[in-house]
Each structure stands twice: as structure tokens, then as C-alpha cells.
Amino acid sequence: MIQNNLLRAILLGGVLFFSTPFVSAQVPDIFSAVLGEVKEETPEAPKDSTVVEEGGYAKLLKDATKAEGFINLYLKKGKLYMEIPLSLLHKPMLYTGRVAQISDNKDVIAGQMPSDPKMVAWSKDDTKVYMHEQSASYSADPKSSIYPRFEDNNIEPILAAYDIKAWAPDSAAVVIDGTSLFLTGDAPMSPFIPSSPFDSMLGAKKLSGSFKRDMSSIRSISSFERNLNVEVRAVYTSSGKPFTAVVNGSLLLLPDEKMRPRLADDRIGYFYNVTLPITTTSMRMEKERYITRWRLEPREQDIAKHRAGGLVVPKQPIVFYYDTAFPKEWWPYIKEGIEDWQQAFEQAGFKQAIIAKPYPDDPSFSPNDARYSCIIYSTSRTPNAMGPSWTDPRTGEILQASVYFYHNVLDLLHNWRFAQTAAADPKARNRNYDIKFLGPMLRYIIAHEVGHTLGLMHNMAASTAYSIADLRSPAFTSKWGTTPSIMDYARYNYIAQPGDGVTNFLPPRLGVYDIYAIKWGYAPIYSAATYRDEVKTLDRWIQEKSNDPRYFYGEQQILNVNDPYALSEDLGDDRVEASRLGIQNLKTTINHLFEWTAERDKDYQLQEALSKAIEQQFRQYLGHVKIYIGGYLRQSPRQGEARQRFVPVPAEKQKEALYFVLDEAQAYPYWMATEEMKKYLGKSERDFDGYVISTMRDLLNISLLSRIGMTSELPTDGTPYTPSQYMQDLFDYVWKEPAELNSALRNLQYTYVSQMISQLELDKADRDSKTSTGKIEGRALIFEYLLKSQELLKSRMGQGNSPLAAHYSSLYYLIDRSLQK
Fold it and tell me: In this structure, are residues 384 and 5 in contact, taking their beta carbons and an 8 Å threshold?
């Protein structure tokens, strides 16, 4: 995703399934079901059917609009009747909702699925049909002795019950009134994103509403071989205002033959579904994680060729339809962004495995139909893009996927391009919406999001593989771009300097990691009889790349960011040097901002937006460096390997990072507030002083001290960087004799003192039974350095009536007053 849809991230649903050993008799069996099926006998119609009125079928459905498919649908006077074949009872389906139209797209856009699908199945008795919710959280072998107890402890809860209204004339199906299944305000038919524990943490305020059943209606129905669609106009009241959405509800029959799953590995980035198999061979329940991937199989006649290493066309290629609402000159770049992935699938033995097509001129086509995977254009101001998918929770098979492309995302990328590269790249200085300039950026967005739809997670470690020298080399960047993975959040080459001669500032079309990851996830392993037997080969493929950093994987860090080698929006192998060069470019750009944009904006709105982009970049560069302090490299070693799981950042690098951040935070207001910024935007040094304050608050808090303490206890080849050493370094920097007392230094020293006072909170700490050892030690250190600061301030107070003496006196009495409480 372009912006953190963080918590997507994040992630997928589940359904009950049963696992049995898989034995391969012939080569084609590698693609057969590997998880055992429980065969259900088709129920018979009641021999003495007194449940419904005789002849009621014809009477009930007379004059109804019919949609014929795997479940026949009938729409009559606002009611939806569903004719459910007995052969479909107990068969798992996905029950989903997708927004087709919406009156307020603040949270959800047209084409989006606001909530996860539910896994459901039907059952019946003499009078009713029941919809059950299924789960893939646990599984057991139906042939094992423990299976009866497994069933007793994992019955499928009933979501809804429906009276049988009629039997089909051939007694092979029953008819129910299914109106309430789709005409409801509950998920997955709700157009609102469900609340999350992360909402309050992230300050998110999502829309919600009260469903108005009497004002809502079913608009259309359709049914096909394996799925059905019911389009509903859903009316709500949201925060006292009217809210309407058209929601497409679907039931999708899951594959009868389950795809062979592939077990996930922490060393390569795939989304995954989780299950806990319960077996008699182990009393310990260990989770299994199945990566999400499409079912790519060779055609029967090509299996021998494929097994011998030849390229073959898959039985069912992945097809993406792109929205014809995109400007036509964009189409080639969209198509290329999708089909760039063909080269990766070739490493797995499949050619033309992924194909891009425009929306067909066919009235039966709908991007809301679960049969189609689409690139959807949204006229939303939100600068974003996303690539979610629907999967079979039993196996991880991707069944359908979408890419949502928001209108404003190219403007965001253009501002990033300007802020990051305008100093070294004259092309980035123009407010140029020419497709030759925007096209490669568009292609990058599409390729990145399609990567998600293929199962790939962000790889935040990728950009660390390239050195600073690499990224300043014209030859290197022309060949390799900025990162070995398009799945990294690596934007443009902000490291290259004017005069370096770099001409390619973009990420690669596809990186070597991406090609390797697709092979790892999609190449069949013919020698393995079961999916568990694949692990040896999968591990060997990873080990073959274990000494090449271009193939390293770093998980995206969401809330606790501790690994400076797996960050968002960073480049290069040295955060300090990369940020120094990036800031150097920002200084050049802000000094020429009004010159480079003079002809394109007379009211300074553009300059305002671009100056904010420069501010954001500066804060981001320093944010990268801050993670060195108390940071550690996180690895995923296996038993027998010499690598350490957590490797602390060297002490000298942590100290370098601390001083770099403090130096740059103080200098920032003075280079950012140029004469033009003051004259045309009314921005002075004081407008940027706040960053000095927020920086000190970041650097001086109990949580950071606790993290430094934890990291200092990890094994290291050098001297550990302890909380005590950190506090001494910080003290030395803050109280060094200044050449002059500017506002940035005053803010720094004042915040240093006030932050120590606020962090102590002695009374609260004494009452807090959950206070950790690290926090107790951190408070003791802060108290020690608060007293040291007071002592130093006392010695500096007697410097006459100068502003410096007054400043020191005020800080002394601030400490003294806090200690008297």
C-alpha cells in the first residue's frame, strides 16, 4: 500500500477444515486436495411432506424475477427467495459484501469490501434451513480416534435460521426467504469498516450508522455456476445525517478440490492463514500458517514438460481487469504494472501467468462480481492505493483480488518526488502531469499493489541491501534502481546529490527479491508427497540466498519500531549518512522552492503544499536515525546457525545517531525559514521550533530508556550502550557551553528539564504495581540527572543580568519547585 493501511494489513479470515496425510500416486496429484474431505450424504426429501403446502413452489414463485445458477434466486415484491439444492448442504461458501456505490467515501470507496468475508455452510431439518459460521482455526483428521471429541468441542454456530417455504418439484432443493441475509446492516453487508482496538491508538474516527430497513431494498439479483450476487440499496443514518450505499452481497462456493497449501516461513514475506492441527502424534498444538497464493497449475498435457523445467501456460492464468475510467493514456502503464510480474512467474515455470485486460464492453460484466479481479479507480481525495484479496481460509488459495487506486495518490507521489529529488533531478522541479513523467510512477504503484494481491507482504529490509555509494552511482541506479524489492516502501532516490550524474531516481520495475519470492511461493515441488514434505526444499531455497542481503526479508513494523534495518520510506545501509545527504538536498530545494515554482502558482498554494512535503521528509529522515538508539537488527535464524536473533546497534552508532538528531533538530528552523518562506507564507523560525521540543520528548522518556536497557543486555562484540551512558551523552550535549543562546537551544534545554520532571511522576510510579524493572531504573536515572542539571544550573546562574543567566535561573527554579512537591 502506498499508505499504511497498516493494519491490513493485516488480514484474513478462517473456515473449519480437516487434515489427512496426502499420498501422491501420480504427478498430477501434486495439485490435488491434500486436506481430507468429509463426505456428506445428500439429504432426501421428507417422504411425508407436510412441512409446506402442496403445490406451494409454483404459487410462491409465480411472477418472480428469476436468476438461475448454482443457487436459483427469485425476486418478488421486494422479497428474495433462494432455492438451495440439497447437494450444496454442508459445503463451505464465502459470504461477502462489497460496496458498489456510496454517498460518503471518507472510509470506504466504491469497489471496496469493508469487512472480512464469513465462511458459512447450510444445513436443514424438517422445517428450517440453517446458516452456520465455519472456522479454520482448528483442524483434525476425521479418521483419528480424537475426531469425535474434536467435533464435540467445535460445533459450527448458527448465524441464522430460515423457514422452508417450498420444495422444488423434483425434491432436490428447498426454497427459503433469504431477504434478511442480504437486507441487513450487519457485516459483511454493512458499508462501514468494523471498529478495531487500533482505532483509539491511531486516533481513527470511523463512520458508523443506524440501518433503516424500511427505506432499504434489493435492487437486482444474479447467479452463476459457483457464485451469486444480490445488490442492495442500504439506507442509514450516520451522525444524524442521511447515508446511502449500494452493497453487492455474494455467496461464493469454495473449491470442491482443495489446493495444496504451502507453509509460511518468517524469512520470506507472504500473507498467511493460520490453523492449529490437533493430532494424536503430538500432545502439543503447533500452529500451521498457509501462505496466500493463487492456484497456478500446468495443464494436464504440460505436466511432464513443466516437471522437466520447461515454461508452460497455466491451466487458469491470473486475469486482472482494469477500470476504463482511468484516462486512456494511462492504460499502457497500468497494463505494464500488472504484467511486469510475468517475469517472476517464469521463474516458477509459468509463462503468461498474469494477464491485464480493460473492462470488457459487456453488460454482464461487473467489477463487483466475485468472479473478476479488478483494478478499480476511485474519485477520492484520499492519497492512497490498496491491494486486498479474498482467500480460501482452509488452504490460503486466493480466489479474487482487487487494487483500489485513489484519485489523489499521484499528487502525493508528485510532491514526494519533488521533495526527495528536485535538488538533483531538474525533471522533478516541474509541476508536470505529462504522462511520460507520471507513467513510471503509476506503473510502480500498480506493480506494488498487484504484488500484494499475489500474496506478498511489504519487505522493509530490502532497501538496506544497497550502500550509499551504490545509490550515488549512475551505472548502478540505472540498472538496479533504489531497492531489490518493489514491495519495499522505498520511493525515490533522495540520496543522490547534484553532480553525481544519477538519471534514474525510481525503484525497479521488479526487484530480484520479488522474482525470488514468487518462485518460492508458486513453484511446484514435485518431489514432495505432502505440503509438509515441501519444507526441506523451501528451506534450501532460502539458505541458498542467506548470504546475499538483496534477498533478506524484513517485516513491516507497525506499533513497536525497533529494527532500524527494516523501516518505511528509507534508503541505503547507513541511516545517518542517508539522512545527512537527504537533508542536504532538502536545504537546496527549500532555497529554490519559489524560483522553481514561480510560473505555476500565483496564490502560493502549491508552494505551501511543497514546503509541507519538505517538512515531512525532514522529520522522516530524522525518524529513521532515531531508531538506531536502543535499536537492534532482528533476524530469523534456525537451529544450528551461528546468527543471533537480536543484534544490538553498535554503541558508537547509537551515540552518533543521538548527536546527529540533536544537531539537525536545532539547525532545522534556521534553514527551513528562508526569506521567501517568511515573505510569502509567513513562516519564521518560531514556526519550526516545535520540532526541537518534540525531538527532546522522543529522546527523553522512560520507554526509550527501558528499550536501551534491554538492548544493552543483548550479546555484542563491542561495548554495550547502556541507559547510564546514554543519559550522560544527552546531558553533555544539552549543557555544553553554547556560542550563542538561540531559541532552538533554549527550547531544547527547557524541554530537557520539563520532560525529566514529567517522566518522574514519583507518586504515580509508587502506586503502579505494573511498573517494570526497566521503568524503575529509568526513573532513578532521570532523577539522578535532574539533580545534576540543577547543580550545573546553579553554577551558571551568576552570570550577571544577561538573558543567558535569566534562562538558567528559570530552569533552576523549575527543578527546585518540582522537587518541593
Answer: yes
